[in-house]
User: Fold this.
Amino acid sequence: MGHTAAFPLLRTTDLDAIFSLADRLLALSVPDPRGDTEISARVSSRAEVRRLLEAVPEAEVGEGAKEDAATPGDSPLPFGPYLLFMDLPDPERAPNAARAALGVRDRIEVYWEAFCWPEVPELGLDRTWKYAALQVSLHHNGTDFDSPWTEDHTLFVHVDGEERAVWVAAQVGAEIIGEHTIC
Assistant:
């Protein structure tokens, strides 16, 4: 078990720019079936769960969320607000699914971990899937939902250390723009 270091590479209000950078990073990576792609949002009512599942119909969710969505009305959730994790069938669907989800909730996260970072022999870095992820935080600048709402969005690259983060960023014409977070 280990933790990733999440380095911010882009902060912008431009959804096209943030998903374009995510696409370039994913093209650099090596696909890996051990991971997945998901969108998450904090929900506080059954109606919100229902609206998100209608907005992103290709998403798979847990049984509890399915039960909440099937319960009529707009009553509060029985155990309070929770994070709804919506698994997507493939990484390419994430940008459109995220845009649809933003029509329901104004703060969401997109998380890709269905890949490996490639080997970088000149730096002595092995290929790794354990510490490989991308995250786009829409309308907040943190790696979790505790950060406040903002106009902009942030893309984080999750890696095993700063050396790989610098290398990954350089491969797509980006650079680290702030302090890392341990996740």
